[in-house]
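Dear colleague,

Following up on yesterday's call, I've attached the two folding results inline so they're easy to grep. Please treat them as preliminary; we haven't cross-checked anything against experimental data yet. The first protein's sequence and structure tokens come first.
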Amino acid sequence: MLEMRPDCERCGADLPADEGGAFICSFECTFCAACADALDERCPNCGGELLDRPARVGMALANNPGSTEHRFKG
């Protein structure tokens, strides 16, 4: 199950689990759409491809909420 990190690692933008607009690599490094574009869809941590993170909605979100641990260090 995806961790569904709540923010962009690069700029700190909020990325709610129930909305689109988040991009992740295979290690779940998480970036907003603007940062993913600026990074040319490549993760700066591992070099992996950044892909759209699926949204988690309804009972799936209620039973399995996204992470609350922020990764932005700025």
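Below is the second protein, in the same order (sequence, then structure):
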Amino acid sequence: MSAQIEKLQAAIAPYREQIINHKVYNAIKNLEDLKVFMQFHVYAVWDFMSLLKTLQNNLTCTSVPWFPTGNADTRYLINEIVNGEESDIDDLGIRKSHFEIYLDAMEQCGADTTPIHTFIKVLRNTKDLKAAFLAAGTYQEAVEFVDFTFKIIDSDQWHLQSAIFTFGREDLIPGMFYSIVKDIDLRFPDSVSKFKYYLERHIEVDGDHHSHLALQMTANLCGTDEDYWMEAEKATIASLQKRIKLWDGVYNQITNASKELQPLSTY
């Protein structure tokens, strides 16, 4: 591991600890609480895929006529990750993206998928994030999380896109949360098995193989440019702060005595 990666990891460690030890996990006591979590988290699952495809579009040739684009090692790294994230297998052995597997898990447990489906439909038709958020009644914390991701996407700075992808995403879900889900699955085996499978796939694939590929991709893109590494550190910290705020939103919604899922967006 390069000295630059070790330095970046040390700088972001306090923020990662806040996420891994966030009070939201202990707040999840039952299936209803888990539904709330998923209705927030699904936006992070979706924009992860958008960030992934942005990197593939930038680092490889995805248009015709084809031309060799960028560094072949970096092309390999991002294409390998895309293959696993966009066309994995679900619990029945059917090829699906991780986003589609997540939607299946939401539907199995009874979480409301209407907002995210509305968001996708409006965005597909209008290409307008603001209009999609408004139509879906997206929670404000989820709005801000996705907006930040797309700010980095629109920056066209590949090293920043790679950095928040590598250091600020799904490997942040702690073992404690997986234990909670396993406990709920024991009580509601016909409601949580698909979500448990989703987490297991992330632990198996993202936590090992993909994380190593992503680290190398970021190292390739930042190279020996100290300014790039400092910019990557700053962007990653901002990304982690948005995740903390997203988890704060989930926690506040779960601990709301009424448990009524009212949209929080003032976008």
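For the second protein, one point worth flagging: The chain has a mean pLDDT of 90.

Best wishes,
A.L.
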